[in-house]
Design brief:
266 residues, inositol monophosphate 1-phosphatase activity, Inositol-1-monophosphatase, EC 3.1.3.25, IMPase, magnesium, Fructose-1,6-Bisphosphatase, Chain A, domain 1
C-alpha cells in the first residue's frame, strides 16, 4: 500500500501540472488537428501534456511500461504484468477546443494487469479525483462515494456518451430511447473520464459507453470501484479495458436493470 501511495502522489503531481498547462492554453494557438474522423480532435496541448507526463514517469520509473492516447499506436493493450502507466492527456479534447470546462487529465497505473491507481484532474472544475486499490476514492482530498439511495432507473441520472459512427445509429437510438423515457434524466458530458469521476462522486448513478479505449476508463474504473460502485461491460460481463464497452453504476441493481432495458442494443 505504501508503494501505491507513492505512485498515486506522483501521478497527482503530474496531473496537476498537466491541468496547469490546460489552463494556460492560448485558445487561438491550440494547433487543432483531427485523427480518425472530423470530431476526433487532437491539439498541441494533448501532445505536450502526454510528453511531459511520460518523460517524467520514465525518468522516475525507467523499468515501467507506458500506454498513452497520443503515442500508443498499435501498442494500446495491457499485455504485461509489469507496472504500466495509462495516460489520457486531455480527455474531452472537443470540449477543451470549444472552451467547455468538462475535460480532464487522466492517469492510471496497472500492476499484474489490474488497475490499482486512478487520478483524474478536471482543472476547469478545480477537482482532483484520486483513488488507490483498497484505499478509497477522494476528490480534493475528501472521501467520495457513489450515490447510495437510488435503486431504480426511474430515479437515476444517466450519463450516456454517444459514439459518432453512423453505422451504430440504430443500436444507439435503441439504447437512448429505452432509457430516455424511463430514467429521471440523461446527460451527454463529452468526456468519459469526467463521467466516471461523477459516478464515483455520486453526482449521477449510471454511465454508459460502448466505444472506449483503455485510457478512457482505466482511472475511472479505480475511482468508481473504490467509491463503492460497480464497473462492467455493457452486457454485464466483467470489466475488460480492451472491450470498448463500459457500464459504471452506483450498485449491482442498477447494473442489472440497465442491462435488461438495453439488452437489444449495442
Amino acid at each position: 500500500m505504501d508503494r501505491l501511495e507513492e505512485f498515486k502522489q506522483f501521478a497527482i503531481e503530474l496531473a496537476q501540472k498537466g491541468g496547469e498547462m490546460m489552463l494556460e492554453a492560448n485558445s487561438k494557438q491550440l494547433g487543432v488537428d483531427t485523427k480518425q474522423h472530423r470530431t476526433d480532435f487532437v491539439t498541441i496541448y494533448d501532445r505536450a501534456i502526454e510528453k511531459y507526463i511520460f518523460d517524467s514517469l520514465k525518468e522516475r520509473y525507467p523499468n515501467h511500461r507506458f500506454i498513452g492516447e497520443e503515442s500508443a499506436g498499435a501498442n494500446n493493450r495491457l499485455e504485461s504484468n509489469d507496472p504500466t502507466w495509462i495516460v489520457d492527456p486531455i480527455d474531452g479534447t472537443s470540449n477543451f477546443v470549444h472552451g467547455y470546462p468538462l475535460c480532464c487529465v487522466s492517469i492510471a497505473l496497472a500492476i499484474d494487469r489490474q488497475m490499482v491507481v486512478g487520478v483524474t484532474n478536471a482543472p476547469f472544475l478545480k477537482k482532483m479525483y484520486t483513488a488507490v486499490k483498497g484505499g478509497g476514492s477522494y476528490c480534493n482530498g475528501e472521501p467520495i462515494y457513489v450515490s447510495r439511495n437510488v435503486r431504480r432507473i426511474e430515479d437515476a441520472m444517466i450519463l450516456l456518451e454517444a459514439n459518432y459512427d453512423p453505422r451504430d445509429s440504430d443500436s444507439r437510438r435503441h439504447v437512448f430511447d429505452s432509457l430516455l423515457w424511463k430514467c429521471q434524466s440523461v446527460r451527454h458530458i463529452g468526456s468519459a473520464c469526467v463521467c466516471m469521476a461523477m459516478i464515483a462522486e455520486g453526482v449521477a448513478e449510471i454511465f454508459l459507453h460502448h466505444n472506449l479505449c483503455i485510457w478512457d476508463m482505466a482511472a475511472g474504473y479505480v475511482l468508481i470501484t473504490e467509491a463503492g460502485g460497480q464497473v462492467c461491460q455493457y452486457n454485464g460481463k466483467p470489466f475488460d479495458p480492451h472491450s470498448g464497452s463500459c457500464m459504471g453504476a452506483a450498485n449491482d441493481e442498477l447494473i442489472r436493470l440497465t442491462e435488461e432495458v438495453t439488452k437489444n442494443g449495442y
